[in-house]
Amino acid sequence: MKKYTISIILIFTFLAANIGYAQNYKKLAQAGFDFLSMSNDARASSLGEAVTSVEGTSSSMFYNPASMARLGGFSDVSLGRTNWIADINYLHGSVAINPFDGQFGVFGISAVYVDYGDFQRTIRSSSASAGYLDMGTYKPYALAVGLGYAKALSDKFSLGANIRYAKQSLGADQIYTVATDGSYGKKDYSANTLVYDFGVLYKTGFKSLNLGMDIKNFSQDVKYEKETFSLPMTLNIGISMNVFELLPNINQDVHSLLITANASHPRDYQEQIGIGGEYWFMKTVALRLGYVFPTDESGISAGLGLKQNISGYDLGFDYSYTSFGVFSDVHRFTLHFAL
Q: Using alpha carbons only, what angle is made at residue 115 by residues 139 and 111, rounded to the nearest 5 degrees?
């Protein structure tokens, strides 16, 4: 166990050093592929995205992959949708398998697809009197598909990692005139890269107090045409605990109250703090509340969860609501199936 404790200290030191350096060199709002930073899971979003230290299901691959190391059953499936601002829709799914009761770790597959909607394509005519020509519509999109793995190395220490293929397409456009016949040629504006996530989870042994850390969206720079840009790499440190365990008169089978907090350092934004609370009644109905600060528009989130075992299958539904200032409110829906 001593070597795991030393590893935890080294990782904390590494993260602190990176955060300290980044404070002196900031590239605000200069990262691309920002869809990779989007929180899609309804439960995580309603907790202010403060789930780095919270043990979870297959959807943990979108946050801290180490959190799925102690998957309770043989398999878990998560499917969800986010109704984002400006009529942008996110679809996500994840599957995790825990063969041989975790002896060889937990294996997972995750996917995210972003539908930006239809856009009108126009191009300036070579004839001054014609103005702009209608060239139909185009449909930008983004996707990320990945493999995840997590392993509990001891009763306290877990590791996890993802490797994902990410692509963003801005569509094809008519950009030049072919000299032979005067027609317009097309060029496809898309970029892709491999993305890596790493995470650790540490159970302190004091009640349910957990510590978690992860590095998300680690990748080489990407470019569409000439200028390169970085991906939105983020460092997260989190802590969580069921605080009702400190109250001896509370029946833990009836009531639980998870309190969790995250400190995040995104590459392209200032440092953020996320806090969340989740109350469970009879391990069946959950009420959640979260807050993230500082942000430009979003901040407070709320949600609910339902969970029931039917014929040996754990079925769950989560919903979250986020107020988004001058924009439309954001709604997230997630379904869980576990065996």
A: 125
The CATH code of the domain that includes 28 is 2.40.160.40
Q: Where are the alpha helices (DSSP H) in the chain?
A: 2-24, 42-46
Residue 215: the pLDDT is 95
Give the span between the Cα atoms of 31 and 296, in whole angstroms: 17
pLDDT reported for residue 326: 84
Sign of CA dihedral 12, 18, 19, 20: positive
Tally of CB atoms within 10 A around 169: 18
Domain count, the chain: 1
User: Which of 32, 29, 50 has the alpha carbon at shortest distance from 41?
Assistant: 50
DSSP run (H or E) holding 106: strand 106-115
Helix (H, G, I), strand (E, B) or coil at 296: coil
Whole-angstrom distance, CA of residue 154 vs CA of residue 202: 10
- In angstroms, the CA 129 to CA 184 distance is 18
DSSP-derived secondary structure for 204-221? -SSTT-EEEEEEEEE---
Which residues have CB under 8 Å from 266's CB, separation 6+? 31, 37, 232, 233, 234, 272
Give 214-219's long-range contacts (Cβ < 8 A, gap of 24+). Answer: 214/52, 214/63, 214/64, 214/65, 214/66, 215/15, 216/36, 216/37, 216/63, 217/33, 217/36, 217/37, 219/166, 219/193, 219/194, 219/195
| Span 156-211, pLDDT tens digits | 999 999 999 999 998 876 665 555 555 566 777 899 999 999 999 999 999 999 99
Burial class of residue 256 (count of CB atoms within 10 Å of its CB; 0-12, 13-18, 19+): buried
Helix (H, G, I), strand (E, B) or coil at 158: strand
- Cβ-in-10-Å burial (0-12, 13-18, 19+) of 336 comes to buried
- pTM to 2 decimal places: 0.86
Provide the residue range defining the domain that includes 325. 2-338
Q: Which of 157, 147, 236, 162 is nearest to 200 (CA)?
A: 157
For residues 279 and 293, the answer to whether their CB atoms sit within 8 Å is no
Q: Element (H or E) spanning 312, and its range?
A: none
Both tokens of 235, joined, read: 């460092």
